[in-house]
């Protein structure tokens, strides 16, 4: 889990094929090294299953590695994502909550397929499963990939924009914990909670600055500022508020392989001083 002595290119949010990325955990780490990163975190959606493979590969390459997870949460009925770094992955409450979130992801797939069929785009659960491979965290991206494979849409972006995004004609709600409860859960497990892309996809109205301040009071330590979905003015305001409140500021690619072609590894990075704070908070 260790990092290089002077890390300089640090990407703290990536996904492998264990959730909705397209690279294996080992392949992702090798790609991170090839991209010139000195530290990479693996933060698959609602599962830790890829961490051991990624950590072994990183150690063999001399690449700094941070174990993490991205939890699917909600606030006032809107999707919010929470990154959790380090911590006790045997904590029974955390294990149980991640399992409940994954079950909620899978349970809505039949209803989504029914809606897509009504829209003239029939898919089978087997087609979705074929896109999910061995992931325990099946979800909308795999439905999107099945739509692409059938030729209904050109790519994931079109699938989400036209059908699968919140409010879309094929969207189906699912279980997700309240983000405040999730922050407390992550802290209780000894992990470090960081809000992922808080103002991505026009979600500034969901997590305005005062709510981010309340999340800090609940135990969150900071949020992603430098993210491809954040506009320059969003980054300015998020950074200023973080600095004023002593919050951690991170930057990352949110890499998904070919699942998000506009998010190459290292396109956004975390400053070394902020990474040092994160490692200290993790107890390293």
From TrEMBL:
Transmembrane segments: none
CDD domains: PHP_HisPPase_AMP
Top EC class of this enzyme: hydrolase
Coiled-coil boundaries: none
GO molecular function: 3',5'-nucleotide bisphosphate phosphatase activity; 5'-3' DNA exonuclease activity; 5'-3' RNA exonuclease activity
EC number: 3.1.3.97
Keywords carried by this UniProt record: Hydrolase
Pfam families named in the record: PHP
Annotated ranges, domain Polymerase/histidinol phosphatase N-terminal: 10-75
InterPro entries linked to this entry: PHP_dom, PHP_domain, Pol/His_phosphatase_N, Pol/histidinol_Pase-like
SMART domains, per database record: POLIIIAc
Name the UniProt record assigns to this protein: 3',5'-nucleoside bisphosphate phosphatase
Species assigned in the record: bioreactor metagenome
């Amino acid at each position: 889990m260790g990092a290089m002595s002077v890390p300089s290119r640090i990407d703290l949010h990536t996904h492998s094929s264990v959730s909705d990325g397209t690279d294996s955990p080992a392949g992702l780490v090798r790609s991170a090294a090839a991209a010139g990163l000195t530290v990479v975190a693996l933060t698959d959606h609602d599962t830790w299953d890829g961490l051991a493979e990624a950590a072994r590969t990183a150690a063999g390459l001399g690449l700094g590695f941070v174990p993490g997870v991205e939890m699917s949460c909600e606030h006032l009925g809107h999707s919010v994502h929470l990154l959790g770094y380090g911590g006790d992955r045997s904590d029974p409450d955390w294990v149980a909550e991640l399992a409940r979130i994954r079950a909620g992801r899978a349970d809505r797939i039949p209803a989504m397929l029914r809606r897509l069929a009504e829209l003239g785009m029939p898919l089978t659960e087997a087609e979705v499963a074929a896109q999910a491979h061995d992931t325990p965290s099946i979800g909308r991206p795999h439905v999107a990939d099945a739509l692409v494979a059938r030729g209904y849409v050109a790519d994931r972006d079109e699938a989400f924009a036209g059908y699968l995004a919140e409010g879309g004609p094929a969207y189906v709600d699912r279980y997700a914990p309240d983000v405040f409860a999730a922050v407390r859960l992550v802290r209780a497990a000894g992990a470090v909670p960081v809000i992922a892309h808080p103002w991505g996809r026009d979600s500034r109205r969901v997590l305005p600055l005062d709510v981010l301040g309340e999340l800090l009071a609940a135990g969150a330590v900071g949020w992603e500022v430098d993210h491809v979905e954040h506009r320059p003015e969003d980054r300015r305001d998020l950074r200023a508020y973080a600095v004023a409140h002593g919050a951690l500021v991170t930057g990352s690619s949110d890499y998904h392989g070919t699942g998000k072609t506009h998010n190459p590894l290292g396109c956004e990075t975390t400053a070394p001083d902020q990474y040092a704070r994160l490692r200290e908070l993790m107890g390293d």
